[in-house]
Amino acid sequence: MRKILVAGSTGQLGKCVLRELNGRRYAVRALARDAGRMAGLEVDGVVIADLTKPETLRGACDGVDAVISCAGAAMSFNRFGDRRSFYEVDYRGNLNLLGEAKKAGVKKFVYVSLSSADKLRQTEYADAHEKFVDELRSSSLDHTVVRPTGFFGIHLEILKFASKGRGLVIGSGDCRTNPIHEADVAAACVEALEKVDDELIVGGPDVFTRRETVELAFTVLNRQPSLVSVPPWAFKLMINPLKLINRRIHALMDFGVAVSQIDVMAPKFGSQRLSDYFGVAAKEL
Questions:
Q1: Least C-beta-crowded within 10 Å: which of 31, 66, 104, 158?
Q2: How far apart are CA 81 and CA 247, in angstroms?
Q3: Which DSSP state fits 62?
Q4: What is the SS3 assignment for 156?
């Protein structure tokens, strides 16, 4: 497989996937919603399309050997004006892309979901991903679902809070996880192109409790930890009004509550460490 379409190419993970593909000398076609965000990306072709609008996707997969989709609704808390839900983008949007891939005769479809999703389907975020996985599995297309633990990028919110002297722990903070850098997930996505496995579950090299992750942020900042523990039910009550303002952000925070209450562990795949990532990010705060 030599020509790859990357959906979600302007996101943090998507950019890492493009770099990984370029490093391995694949021909890359990038699919993006905003042409302005393509600046500086090395690709062989660009398709400007919106996954939620099927008519814009026509021909996007023509001549492509495989699709890697890390496309989804924004994981950022800062993009408050973006109200597209996870069901709209992660489920229905990717379903539109799958339809185009099948029509074009694409040989492989790699999709990025999440680890431990079966324990989290009561949340919109996990359920939207898994509804698409269900569709992908029922299709005739060869596929691999990449299942990472939490991305390093989302942990930056913890570092930002710590820089202001605040550390939030939901519940006891005893549940464990081994978060993974986006670049390591990108490497897994590219390796999945040649794998026959229908799933690839990946985590980082270090295991933390949720409380230890917050404490690490304070340590990197050379600050005395100042942690506040909030019961999950109280946090859910606090975020309820967001349903009326921005459903996506509410769903993201609701997922954050749920995922913090279970162990999310995966086999070690990545090599980059969260402490180093925090150290670099701390210099930019």
A1: 104
A2: 11
A3: T
A4: helix
User: How does pLDDT run across 117-148, given as a tens digit for each residue?
Assistant: 999 999 999 999 999 999 999 998 999 999 99
Q: What is the pLDDT of residues 163-179, one digit of tens each?
A: 999 999 999 999 999 99
Is the pLDDT score of 39 beyond 60?
no
Nearest to residue 97, comparing CAs of 32, 193, 188? 32
CATH 3.40.50.1000 corresponds to the domain 3-152+180-202: no
108-112, strands of its sheet edge to edge: 45-48, 27-32, 3-7, 66-69, 108-112, 142-148, 199-202
**Cβ neighbourhood burial of 91 (10 Å; 0-12, 13-18, 19+):** buried
Contacts with 14 (C-beta within 8 Å, 6 or more apart), sequence order: 6, 7, 8, 30, 70, 71
- Reduce the DSSP state of residue 242 to 3 states and report it: helix
Instruction: Say how far apart CA 257 and CA 235 lie, in whole Å.
Output: 8
> How many degrees, rounded to 5, is the angle at CA 13 between CA 151 and CA 89?
95
> What is d(CA 217, CA 161) in angstroms, rounded to the nearest whole number?
9
